[in-house]
Amino acid sequence: xxxxxxxxxxxxxxxxxxxxxxxxxxxxxxxxxxxxxxxxxxxxxxxxxxxxxxxxxxxxxxxxxxxxxxxxxxxxxxxxxxxxxxxxxxxxxxxxxxxxxxxxxxxxxxxxxxxxxxxxxxxxxxxxxxxxxxxxx
Length: 137
Description:
By secondary structure, this protein is α+β, with helices and mostly antiparallel strands. The protein has a single domain, classed as Dynein light chain 2a, cytoplasmic (Beta-Lactamase). The chain contains four helices and six strands, in the order βααββαβββα. It has helices spanning 9-15, 20-29, 58-78, 116-136; strands at 2-3, 35-42, 47-52, 86-90, 95-101, 104-110. Strands 1-3-2-6-5-4 form a six-stranded antiparallel beta sheet, sandwiched between helices. α2 packs antiparallel against α4 (116-136). The radius of gyration is 14 Å and the shape is globular.
C-alpha cells in the first residue's frame, strides 16, 4: 500500500490520527476486484492514500480529480444547486468515478470490463464510510 505523508493542513487533522490510515487501508482492500485504482485525496488535490495496479500517477490523478469535481460543483452551484454528488466518465478502456467523501474526494477507476453498477455501489459505500470516519474525528 502506498502511503503519502504530504497532505493539506486540513487533512493532517485526520490522516495522522492513530488507526486512521489502517482504517483507510482496510476500506480500500475490501473493494471489488473490478476496480483498478482507488485514490483518496484532499479537496485541494493532495494525495492521501492510493491502492491499485497503477499507482505511479496517483499524485497527478488526485489533483486532476479535485479539479474536475470542483468544476462540476461550480456548474451545479451556477444552476442553483448545492454541490455535485459525483462525476462519472466512461471510455473504451475504463470508467472513472469521482465523488465527495466527507472532507475528502475519492476516485475509482474501473477495469476495462468493470460493471458500472458495481463501481457506483462501491463508490457510494466507500464515500459514506470515509464521511463517517472523518465526522467521528
